[in-house]
Amino acid sequence: MQITRFGPDDAAELKEWVALEDAVRLADSPWEHEPTLLRAEARFRHGWDGEPAVPYLARVDDEVVGGGTIAVSEYDNLHLAWLGLQVHPDHRRRGHGSAILAHLEGEVAAMGRTTVGMGGWESEACVAFAARHGYARAHQAINRRQHLADVDRAELDRRYDEALPRAADYALERWSLPTPDDRLDDLAEMASAINDAPTDDLDIEDEVFSAERMRSYEAACAFRRERGYRVVARHLPTGQLAGQTVVVVQSEHPTRGDQHDTSVVRAHRGHRLGLLLKVELLRWLAEAEPQLEEIDTFNAESNDHMIGVNELLGYRVMGRELAFQRTL
Ligand SMILES: CC(C)(COP(=O)(O)OP(=O)(O)OC[C@H]1O[C@@H](n2cnc3c(N)ncnc32)[C@H](O)[C@@H]1OP(=O)(O)O)[C@@H](O)C(=O)NCCC(=O)NCCS
């Protein structure tokens, strides 16, 4: 087997990568939307927020049989590397997955990282493969999809009105992406509230947010040609930002959106801000993106509060994603 690293400028390899991802998707997670060249390039050029994943393709006799990615952060979690690993469905149970994993672990060790994580959609293969290689299950997340035609807007309006008196000290504000520079420091401080989301048994440290990181996140969205909508809650007596929720609409497929962060700063919990933020964002999207049909979201399965809000908003479960870790 030949395993080669490539990058966002390698057009031929990017195409092969997307074809591999699509074959794996059809086998393991057919509800996911088909991958696109733009999104693959964005991942390897910008990552989520400025730190691109590094991709590898594995070939046997010139045929692509699998691939992988390594993602590390310099913002925080300097001990950690996340691997992505996929073997083409026509080439499984021949040891290719194990060979790719060994290669990626070697790269990670050379980088001086000591904890490795990997994950995938829940399946017998994923669970057995991780166990076989000494990885312990550490986290599970649920992928939900909201079908906007099914949302009961009248019921949501009622809940919104009911919640409003609990949040009398707060105002909701609509901020389109990109965020002006002079707001990025406040945004970064608020964004760190996401560190309170459950991490189950994962060996991870709090993430460190900065204005630069917020800008890099928005640059990644812009590169994917996503239109971004952020609603924030401001605490009127102090002027502080108390919470936010963000949805991006894919201009490649304008009927599809993705839910990004939703968080409420600890000191401001208990005022129904999670519900108010999400309803306000839905109202904005109905005006600005009337063609939008669905929004995908991921939550830690243990995040009962957030899931409670999502179910009220008409989400349906699509799949469960597992994460595993081991120390090298
Ligand atoms: C998981 C995956 C990478 C395994 O690739 P693979 O090339 O088939 O793996 P290997 O042939 O190296 O398998 C190594 C061992 O893992 C276990 N294993 C792998 N697939 C299995 C399955 N479907 N059922 C039971 N055990 C399995 C077995 O112990 C196997 O050894 P064996 O074949 O000698 O019994 C592949 O199924 C895949 O791409 N799945 C979708 C993506 C994914 O889930 N990635 C994350 C993995 S945590």
Please provide a written account of the structure.
The structure is a single chain. The protein has 328 residues and is an alpha+beta fold. The protein has two domains: 2-134, Gcn5-related N-acetyltransferase (GNAT) (Aminopeptidase), CATH 3.40.630; 144-322, Aminopeptidase (3-Layer(aba) Sandwich), CATH 3.40.630. Helix content is 33%, strand content 31%. It is built from nine helices and twelve strands. Strands 1-2-3-4-5-12-6-11-10-9-8-7 form a twelve-stranded mixed beta sheet, with helices on both faces. The protein starts with a strand and ends with a strand. The model has no long low-confidence stretch (mean pLDDT 94). It binds coenzyme A. Coenzyme A (COA) is lined by residues 24, 28, 85-87, 92-98, 118, 120, 123-126, 128-130, 132, 324.
Helix content: 25-40%
Average per-residue pLDDT, rounded, comes to: 94
Q: List low-pLDDT spans.
A: none
Which second-level CATH architecture of the largest domain applies? 3-Layer(aba) Sandwich
Globally, the shape reads globular
What is the total number of structural domains? 2
Short description:
This protein has helices at about 10-30, 35-45, 95-110, 125-130, 155-165, 185-190, 210-225, 275-290, 305-310, and strands at about 1-5, 55-60, 65-70, 80-85, 115-120, 135-145, 170-175, 225-235, 240-250, 255-265, 295-300, 315-325. It is of the alpha+beta class.
